[in-house]
Hints:
Blueprint: H1 3-15, E1 26-29, H2 36-42, E2 43-51, E3 54-62, E4 69-74, E5 80-86, E6 90-98, E7 104-112, E8 116-125, E9 133-137
Antiparallel strand pairs: 1-8, 2-3, 3-6, 4-5, 4-7, 7-8, 8-9
Amino acid sequence: MSRQYFSAVRICLSGIISLATIVGSAEVQAKATEPVEAIAKTTSIKFVGPDKNLLIFSIEHANIYNEKFAVEVRGEDDQVLYSHLYTAKNFSRKLYLLKPDESVVVSIYIRSKNTWVRETFEINPVAEYNDGLIVKRD
């Protein structure tokens, strides 16, 4: 994967919360005393769609424990592309990532003290399709 691509992504993410990826797999880690389903139901990370040179994601998180949490974006090599702490009770944001020229894998995390949720997306640019990419969810 190109280092130039990740450099461009970091610049984009620092100005506005940006990210994209299009293959998703959800993974949830919770306190032993908390049911995993409760954590999974309070958080949603979805691919919205492409817009010109950007891929748009929607992140919603009901901060039921009213504690600080981080939104984190990581590349294929587990390289941190974006990370920021929030305290909002009902968090809702759109994230934007530049469309890649080659296939990439991106993971989006919502992390708090004792819990985390991860969605992983794989983006495969393909010229034959309408929007020029294939989005998969792991």
